């Protein structure tokens, strides 16, 4: 028993818990310990009780403004003045108690594991079959913080032969044994940035970075009155202003957003900082847009306003007898005319088209829809040709962006970026075949489909698996592919339901289909209206919102594994540029393609040229896009489907 243990216990009132905690420590089989109670302004007689009952233990009396972290910090500073090499510090909460062999077990666990930092195996005092703490695993790439073991039946999967849980990323502050050299090397608890919650997680993450090992000892069982700790989470949407503000900013709230932000900034590796700050923003937006009571009022007002705004339009359409002219492709409901007289404002095809929206599911379709022969003629004579630059394609495929770059720029609309090693991947609409080279660089086996003959020439020269045509005339073994990627193709398909059924046919039972396509519920569509770049008449035949696509997936008997919106930063810049150009029917916009003899190119005024030169500056402000994506109002859907 030569290793002395300094047990630091912060207390603030709750004398009954303190009595039970101290009584359990008094009877420990390991006797070489000293208890330091940091009494932060208790008014229930805690100090008097301890001095009368345990006069040989130290009480540090404070005025009530320390909170948990500074109390622990204060106790550790006191212990450092009296400690020597080989000693330990045990951080403990007063709402915990232990059996008599607790100290002996936790010290032996540290000594047998090269003086590791040892966490207690914490269970519920009222229900010992419930695990409260067993070490924490953190996956910063997914913003995931979880307990290593949450159920007793899973214990065998995580412990070694010595009843130790290993491979832990951080530990809680209740019942954790800290070798004295950890504090000397890694520093004390950070009370300035994290006064109460999460400071323990930050401290032990920091200690691990300094090379100290973290483990949990199953034999060092600690009993915790879990309901005595902190505030409860807001459980419903009927919270008052006071409750919401308390949850967001109160010092004793586990949801305190200031503490949470500081924890991310102090602990998160730099390469995952953007992802975790994005999740932090989503947490704030969750409260703002779902919990504040005024949102209900705003929602009702906006719906009433929208009704009266659309009423004249509906009456006008009824008078023109345009309702019922076309049936919805998805739910077969009635449609109404949304925009009239749209034309090809990119490549100069001169005919006019209308778009009709379904009253029921919100699906929008371009009308009249052209036959396959007419569309082929338009693509041949108006759509810009893609030259097969083999060297350029190979060079581009070598420069695959990392995950942070993809997230920052909104490039996750490129679906094949989600390829995993060993997967058999079919990319429908593979274009120049660059995607097939990139799939191979990700470690997948690539197949591509595209109707462009230039693509076939590229595939031949690069010896790639390629089919010239569409998914409808593709001939491969059924249930063959692990992953089918469809980037910005669904909107071009005449029959989207048949298209999904064809994709489903080639998907194995555990495989996934990942699609990206424009979102008609996006913020930019609501702002720009007819000038929204993703109408792309007449090449886009289908235009989906969330409800219409969910209906389509249900009809195809496919389950939605995930659905989110993403706005590529480039799209925002193109949208602003396009809005500044006053394109007339039959004219070609030079922003979209190169020379074409069938159309006239429009000239841009000097004033607009100056504005266009300022466009690159917008790229620095496009963090706004990520916020819009979190609100599910981004320009494109990225959807994962499975059988």
UniProtKB/TrEMBL annotation:
Keyword vocabulary terms for this entry: Membrane, Methyltransferase, Transferase, Transmembrane, Transmembrane helix
Transmembrane segment boundaries: 284-308
Any single biological process term in GO: methylation
SUPFAM superfamilies: Nucleotide-diphospho-sugar transferases, S-adenosyl-L-methionine-dependent methyltransferases
GO molecular function, one term: methyltransferase activity
Chain ranges of the Glycosyltransferase 2-like domain: 7-127
Protein name per UniProt: Methyltransferase family protein
């Amino acid at each position: 028993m030569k290793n002395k243990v300094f047990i630091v216990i912060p207390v603030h009132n709750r004398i009954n818990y303190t009595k039970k905690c101290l009584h359990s420590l008094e009877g420990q089989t390991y006797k070489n310990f000293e208890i330091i109670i940091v009494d932060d302004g208790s008014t229930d007689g805690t100090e008097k009780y301890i001095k009368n009952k345990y006069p040989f233990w130290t009480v540090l009396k404070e005025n009530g403004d320390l909170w948990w972290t500074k109390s622990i910090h204060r106790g550790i500073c006191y212990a450092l003045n009296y400690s020597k090499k080989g000693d330990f510090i045990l951080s403990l909460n007063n709402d915990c108690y232990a059996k008599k062999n607790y100290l002996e077990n936790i010290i032996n666990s540290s000594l047998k594991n090269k003086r590791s930092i040892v966490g207690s195996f914490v269970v519920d005092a009222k229900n010992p079959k419930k695990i409260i703490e067993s070490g924490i695993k953190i996956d910063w790439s997914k913003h995931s913080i979880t307990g290593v073991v949450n159920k007793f039946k899973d214990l065998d999967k995580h412990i070694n032969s010595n009843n130790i849980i290993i491979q832990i990323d951080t530990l809680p502050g209740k019942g954790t044994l800290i070798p004295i050299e950890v504090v000397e090397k890694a520093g004390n608890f950070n009370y300035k940035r994290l006064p109460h919650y999460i400071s323990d997680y930050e401290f032990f993450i920091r200690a691990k970075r300094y090379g100290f090992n973290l483990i949990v000892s199953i034999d060092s069982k600690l009993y915790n009155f879990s309901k005595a700790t902190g505030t409860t989470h807001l459980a419903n949407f009927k919270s008052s202003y006071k409750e919401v503000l308390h949850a967001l900013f109160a010092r004793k709230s586990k949801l305190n957003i200031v503490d949470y932000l500081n924890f991310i900034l102090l602990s998160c590796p730099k390469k995952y900082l953007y992802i975790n700050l994005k999740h932090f923003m989503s947490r704030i937006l969750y409260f703002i847009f779902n919990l504040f009571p005024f949102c209900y009022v705003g929602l009702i007002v906006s719906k009433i306003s929208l009704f009266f705004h659309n009423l004249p339009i509906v009456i006008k359409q009824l008078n023109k007898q345009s309702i019922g002219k076309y049936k919805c492709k998805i739910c077969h409901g009635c449609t109404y005319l949304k925009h009239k007289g749209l034309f090809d404002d990119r490549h100069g095809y001169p005919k006019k088209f209308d778009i009709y929206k379904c009253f029921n599911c919100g699906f929008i379709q371009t009308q009249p829809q052209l036959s396959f022969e007419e569309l082929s003629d338009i693509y041949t004579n108006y759509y810009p040709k893609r030259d097969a630059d083999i060297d350029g394609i190979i060079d581009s495929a070598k420069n695959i962006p990392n995950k942070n770059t993809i997230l920052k720029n909104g490039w996750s609309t490129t679906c094949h970026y989600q390829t995993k090693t060993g997967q058999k991947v079919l990319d429908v609409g593979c274009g120049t075949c660059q995607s097939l080279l990139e799939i191979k660089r990700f470690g997948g086996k690539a197949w591509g489909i595209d109707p462009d003959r230039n693509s076939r020439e590229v595939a031949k020269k690069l010896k790639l698996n390629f089919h010239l045509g569409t998914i409808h005339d593709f001939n491969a073994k059924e249930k063959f592919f692990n992953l089918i990627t469809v980037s910005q193709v669904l909107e071009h398909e005449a029959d989207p339901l048949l298209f999904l059924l064809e994709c489903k046919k080639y998907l194995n039972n555990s495989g996934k289909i990942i699609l990206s396509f424009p979102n008609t519920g996006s913020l930019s569509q609501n702002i720009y209206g007819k000038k929204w770049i993703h109408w792309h008449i007449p090449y886009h035949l289908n235009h989906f919102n969330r409800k219409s696509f969910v209906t389509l997936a249900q009809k195809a008997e496919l389950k939605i594994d995930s659905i989110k919106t993403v706005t590529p930063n480039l799209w925002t810049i193109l949208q602003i540029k396009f809005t500044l150009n006053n394109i007339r029917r039959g004219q070609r916009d030079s922003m979209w393609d190169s020379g074409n003899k069938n159309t006239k190119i429009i000239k841009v005024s000097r004033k607009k040229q100056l504005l266009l030169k300022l466009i690159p500056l917008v790229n620095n402000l496009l963090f706004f896009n990520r916020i819009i994506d979190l609100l599910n109002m981004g320009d494109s859907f990225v959807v994962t489907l499975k059988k």
